[in-house]
Amino acid sequence: MTVLRPKKSSLLIVATAIIVVNCLTVVHAAMPNSDPAASFDAVATVVMHPRCMNCHQIGAPKQNDSQVPHQQQIVRGPDGHGVPALQCKACHQIANTPDGFVPGAAGWQLAPLSMNWEGLTKRQICIQMKDPARNGGRRTGEEVIEHMRADPVVLWAWTPGANRTTPPISHDEFVRRLVLWRDAGMPCPQ
């Protein structure tokens, strides 16, 4: 009985083909969607997550993933820090409490009223994030990215403590997606 053995050159061609296909699959998976407006989709998964939305409110902060009104009937107050008799910093310090029950980060407060996202669609939030009159005065994509990259309250979303959920992508991936969005011209979904 004759046993057929493949030639070494045939094996080399097959192995090379497998490697090339695998590399192309990895590269394709790493590429953002070809629709420029879709570059905001991953950003939206973060900014529309309860860690962000709970403080981007009109009247009162929300709590938990269910976004229930803040306990103790806390309200915004004139500057987003609560009312004079009960400001955010009365409970929220520069870090989470050791048990994580009371969250905290430097500069803890509600987002300015101009940055309210309550009830807005992904498209409306996208448009607002590009508007300096409604994004905290950030005039460039780089300024928006820097806010998201370094603001202690933004960073807190990834270390919220007390079994709170975090945004669906890592902070590094979030910043990477913001850069892709900026590089695509900051388009907004329809």
Keywords:
190 residues; two-stranded antiparallel ribbon; 4 strands; mainly alpha; 7 helices; globular
Structure report:
This protein has 190 residues and is mostly helical. The chain is globular, with a radius of gyration of 23 Å. It contains 7 helices and 4 strands. A hairpin with a 2-residue loop joins strand 3 (82-83) and strand 4. The longest helix has 23 residues, at 8-30. The chain has one domain (36-183).
Helix and strand run: HHHEEEEHHHH
What can be said about the biggest beta sheet? 2 strands, antiparallel
The tally of beta strands, per DSSP, is 4
Count of discrete domains: 1
C-alpha geometry:
globular
What is the spatial order of strands in the main beta sheet? 1-2
Q: Mean pLDDT, nearest integer?
A: 87
How many DSSP helices? 7
Structural class of the secondary elements? Answer: mainly alpha
Estimate the helix proportion, in percent: 25-40%
Strand content: under 5%
Residue stretches low in confidence (pLDDT < 50, at least 5 long) are: 20-32
Radius of gyration: 23 Å
User: Termini, distance in Å?
Assistant: 68 Å
Produce a short descriptive summary.
This protein has 190 residues and is mainly alpha-helical. The protein has one domain (36-183).
SSE layout and pairing:
Layout: H1 8-30, H2 41-47, H3 50-53, E1 62-63, E2 68-69, E3 82-83, E4 86-87, H4 122-130, H5 141-150, H6 152-156, H7 171-183
